[in-house]
Amino acid sequence: MSSVIGDILPVALGVAISPVPVIAVILMLLLGVLQWLARPKPGEEPSLPAWMAAIDSMTVGKALGLGILLSAANPKNLTLCLAGGATIGGADLSTTGTVVVLVVFVAIASSSVVAPVLAFLLAHDRMQEPLDNMRRRLTANNATVMSVLLLVIGAAIRGKGLATVTEGAP
C-alpha cells in the first residue's frame, strides 16, 4: 500500500498545485462575501438564482455533460486523476488498502482548495488580503507554474510507465 501511495503522490500534488482551482476558490470566497452582504433584508422575499434553479432540475445526462465540460476545461487535472486512478486500480490492494490510498489521494489533491476555504472560514478578515495576493501571484505566474508542473508530472508518469513495461521484458 505504501508503494502505491508513493506512486500517486506526484500525481496528487500535481492536482493540488494547479493554480486554476485555487484562483477559482479565492474568487468564490470573495464573491461569497459580496453575496452575504447583498442578501435579502428581513422580510424580503429571496429570489433563486437562475443557475441554482437549473441545477435543481438537472437530469443525469445534463449532470454528466456538465462534468465532462468541467473536466475538458481542465484537461491537466483530468489526465492526472486518470493516471492516479489507473495506478490505484492496477495495484494489488485489499478493499481497505484501496480506500486508504483513495482517501490519501483525495486529501492531497484537494488540499490546495480546502486550505484557503478553511482559512477563510476561520479568519476571513485576516485572510482576505493574503488570499487576494495569492490569487494575483497565481494568475501572473500561471504559465510558469503549469509548465514546470506538467514537465515534472509528465516525467514521473513516463518513468512509471517505462518501469512497468521493462519489468515484464526478458
Describe this structure in words.
By secondary structure, the protein is an all-alpha fold. It has one domain. It contains eight helices and no strands. The chain has helices at residues 2-17, 19-37, 50-56, 60-73, 75-90, 95-122, 124-140, 142-167. α2 (19-37) packs across α6 and α6 (95-122) packs across α7. It is globular and about 70 Å long.
Give short descriptive properties of this protein.
single chain, 170 residues, mainly alpha, globular
Oligomer: single chain
Q: Would you tell me the overall average pLDDT?
A: 77
Question: What does the main sheet amount to?
Answer: none
Number of domains: 1
Would you summarize the structure shown here?
The chain has eight helices and no strands. It is an all-alpha fold and 170 residues long. The radius of gyration is 20 Å and the shape is globular.
Blueprint (SSEs and pairs):
Blueprint: H1 2-17, H2 19-37, H3 50-56, H4 60-73, H5 75-90, H6 95-122, H7 124-140, H8 142-167
Helix pairs in contact: 1-5, 1-6, 1-8, 2-6, 2-7, 6-7
